[in-house]
Design brief:
The structure is a homotetramer of 353-residue chains. Chain A has 353 residues and is α+β, with helices and mostly antiparallel strands. Chain A has helices at residues 3-6, 17-20, 45-64, 69-99, 166-174, 186-195, 232-237, 303-306; strands at residues 124-127, 130-134, 150-154, 157-160, 203-206, 209-214, 217-220, 285-291, 317-320, 337-339, 348-349. Chain A starts with a helix and ends with a strand.
């Protein structure tokens, strides 16, 4: 999409790699069917490095040759796309390592000290609601699915100042949350039964203690850290019952649209805010109930870039924020990550609203 | 849920029927797993009739005994629930008959005369948008999923005055709509490939003419009738290309919320309306892009009735209106029917917005 | 195969029934795919009776018209074929009734008195071995798979005088037979794990007692009756360990070929025979280790009759004898019934050799 | 099985490898479930080499310490077992490479010159039949499944002097062999339809010429070479129609038992033998119709070695001879290879009998 049409005299590293590394772009020609991807013997590691160097050098040449604005934007989009894959690589690596009973670690398997700090009390910030604007306004790069910017109506709501923690999730487990079908969506309950869910993905329980596989190895679950590797179905089932003494049920906010554009809404000034809403970025992706569907007046762009995100706008839910494996430069309030409701391998958790 | 707790001295027709006829109510105890339902030998037909008479008589007795308002409402809810199943029965009957190569008809298989009338031109009515209210206001019965009534913000939009027709669908087929992956959602394209979709469910093509199986037998497709038995995926892929000369693409309205509550919005007076928006009820259910999710402040009721619709609020899309097999008394503007996006056996079609 | 080609002026009851009731005969044209058979709405019961009467009358007419020997044999083959289906009907009926938690009985559900008689001791009859002849010799009707008659070499062997009983099977269960993988074939163990086998099909255990579903309803398992509804995998796993004190392991005879042609072999005269080998016919089909493969010089006949049994000569094992639901006239020493090794719904048990 | 119990002071290279590399030995403890094997990240290549060196050294030490006869035999059995895996490795490598559209070759992809030599005429050698002995007699090492030696009765038969060739297989294809259901076993036809078989595995047809993937790359099919990568179902369907003018149908010999022990039977001296039966070893494994079942009086040995082959004695057919990827030292007339009838990835072909 970039080098062949725009860099004069560019020669592909290997014509056959177009087929090998085409994940789903029907516009780019034939490709290996997804369920049989694992059957392909990959090029050897040094070949892959050589391929990468070949690409990097050609992109540098192209950038040095004063490309048009259109080409420059395409390259920038490519960099953002690669960042998405960087976090998927880490997500997949954890998943693979967790399948392996000899428990290899991605790096430094030193045990994390389990913090004994008192769990911060759950507090909420109130927001006024009203008509606001959300979506990317096309100043700077954004994925197609982040726009167009448009108006939304929000009713007044309260948002938890922090994420749901592992300690709170253990309470949910101890309360029999994974065994009470009335808490669950029908589809989620079927999935939970079929796959035998009884705790977050990667957790194991030994002598009454919860352990989990992380990129740093097999460790005790840290009670004050945000719960992670839970599906939307679990997120939906779990936080119905808030702390005792709290009459009103906390409900999760239908946050797509106003979650990360919060600064555009006004917190009620009367409420003491302490530090206000925390842990928005860099911990875990936060499930929302919003479907990943096109914003009003969304129009797919033509060509291979055009099928970028629009094609996936069915059967998935929006996640907001970012996780601990998201590259730092990749944070953008209007970004909408998306996965099916049963997804557990993602670094995803939840926040009450 | 009705007779055992509320009719004094009521004795079940057969204790074992609770198990046999429990479709999905976990609160009502054990039940046959869905995939193995077909393995159960049913009670004989006369037993089923006797069972029905037993129930009818007991309900009549209960109604004659001045039941509480709560019980009366429960019975009314039961009647509405039965109406839903009546249309599902006809939907299933068509599906079964269509599997049978000897093509039995549900009734009077006389061929419908294919109307030669000119297809009415496609016209649109404009609406102003703004903040309106939708959802059931709890005057008269409604399903739990129809409320609570709440405010929604709608941008100005145009709505087609009639449904998409079979003639228009044939154009979509002839334009290669079922072969152009760029028109389709990724999930829809995978399904279409896997199941070999090339026309609406039940259609067959012979000597260049389209035939279809209906409850009245195997018939020529009527070009001026609304297209029916298409999935959301097909609806989404199809109507992108508007009339020639029309620069702006028609987009389907994200209609859940304002579709059938249209009278609460004001059509722009400047537009000539002729007869205005037609075919809202009684033809085909109309796919919307809206997920079947809870309205703001939706709270599930406790008990078996409580799991009525809330449990299904994931992975499904809202359909609005009603179809030709919906019992007449079952029309309600706030009703939200719901099915997964791949559903084709329903009497569902589409309207441009 | 019979009436259309051979009865002058015969008119089919309904042309479409050829499709509907064609189970697997590719030579007879199109048919409903097996996994979707259950989707076909059947003709009504009175139509089915009328169809049967139509056929019976036509066959009677044909038989009265002095048919050729070839046609007469074809009709006789059809009668034998129908008898096979009669026992399959009863086998299927039991299977269906057993799925139904309200436990309908096929007939007279009076409980069978559980015999308290002492279990007859297990005795064996010795056979000399040598070269014998087996297979049908074409005097009288036989299925194609029963011939040609040919020579077989058998080593001396001992055959149990009675079938393995339910009491013995309970011992196998109590010995942990269903939990000791070393006893099982690899394929059988995988199946047993996947389907959770822990006793014969249809058995349930309540308060330490074994019950089972029979055509006469839900009953206590009779300890002295032959065990039934076990697969070949269970038969193979179970009887390795003989009575204590018996050093030599009893091995199951590779009996296809000499089992029911026993009278052609000579029992060693020195052994006292009492009543000799009992329960050969009319109790349960007896699994053998012999594959269902063609006898030497077997040649398939041309046409639809030709594909009668030869097509199934892979992946199945031979069963000998007959069961309690085999029509009495259907017993024939050379008959070879055949099923895959995992089959449990058949009335099949085992005999030690 | 060898080092831990028998080499004093032996320490495993890595305790966790026992789990990782346990393929199916339930006696050796837990293991990764087969369908999820591909999910395990393997140890790095240098670790694997170090592991191998560790084992080799320890075995050398053990052999140098004058082990008991039992231990020596166990080591020899291990060597034979490894040879089996060596040929499976090559079989799997070809399979993987053939999935890869960029067609990597295992070695030297120089095109094989397609021999233009005239196909040798098909001739047969006659054998007298009678009672012979087969099976391993326990002089020298053999797998458990090769014995006990026992008597078999064979009728006179004729055996083709060479294997079926690619040229003959092309005739079968051109005759519509893959489209004529009457030629096929029912189970085989279902498989062929489901997987779209129309030629041997790995074959592709371009401009009327057949190409195939080999360990040496993508090459024209050599007409005079033995056909390979066909299942038993294809072998069974194919060679029914012999040369024109040959009235009697050639039938495949039920060869297990006498195939490779041919020298124990006497060819009829009257027949001119030229070179006699050729291509017995080192070309392709030859399908037989014999089930892989225990020889008379076969007894499984106790322990992990005991489950060596006996556990697999169901649902598989015997193949005789050896293939081009069998290590030379691994040839033994009594060896019985075994695979399910649908297997195509093996280097397996056929010989007429």
């Amino acid at each position: 999409m970039v080098l062949s049409p725009h860099l004069k005299g560019y020669r592909p590293f290997d014509e056959r790699f177009t087929f090998l590394f085409n994940s789903y772009y029907e516009t780019l020609g034939a490709r290996q069917p997804r369920p049989r991807r694992g059957m392909i013997t990959r090029p050897a590691l040094d070949e892959v490095y050589a391929y990468r160097a070949h690409i990097d050098q050609a992109v540098a040449t192209l950038l040095g040759s004063r490309p048009t604005r259109e080409v420059a934007e395409l390259i920038e989009l490519g960099c953002h796309h690669e960042r998405r894959h960087q976090q998927l690589l880490l997500t997949d690596i954890l998943h693979l390592l967790a399948q392996n009973p000899i428990r290899p670690a991605y790096r430094d398997p030193a045990p994390v000290s389990v913090e004994t700090a008192v769990l911060p009390a759950l507090s909420f910030t109130d927001f006024e609601g009203g008509i606001g604007e959300i979506g990317h306004d096309r100043v700077g790069l954004a994925f197609d699915s982040e726009g167009p910017r448009h108006r939304v109506l929000t009713e007044p709501f309260r948002l938890a100042d922090r994420l749901v923690t592992n300690a709170e999730w253990m309470e949910f487990i101890e309360d029999g949350g994974y065994t009470k079908h009335l808490l669950w969506l029908s589809e989620g309950w079927a999935k939970a039964l079929a796959e035998g869910w009884s705790r977050p993905l990667y957790w194991e329980t030994r002598d009454g203690q919860h352990w989990t596989t992380t990129l740093r190895g097999f460790q005790l679950v840290n009670p004050t850290a945000p719960v992670v590797h839970v599906s939307y179905f679990e997120a939906d089932a779990s936080p119905r019952g808030p702390e005792s003494g709290c009459r009103a049920r906390a409900q999760r906010l239908d946050v797509d649209g106003n979650f990360l554009d919060l600064n555009r809404l006004r917190p009620k000034p009367a409420y003491p805010r302490k530090a206000g809403v925390q842990q928005m970025f860099g911990d875990v992706w936060q499930w929302t109930r919003s479907p990943f569907s096109p914003y009003p007046r969304f129009r797919a762009v033509d060509g291979a870039v055009g099928v970028y995100n629009g094609k996936f706008m069915s059967g998935q839910l929006v996640l907001r924020g970012s996780s601990c494996v998201t590259p730092p430069g990749h944070l953008r309030a209007s970004d909408r990550n998306f996965f099916p409701a049963h997804t557990r391998w993602q670094f995803a958790g939840l926040r009450l609203a």
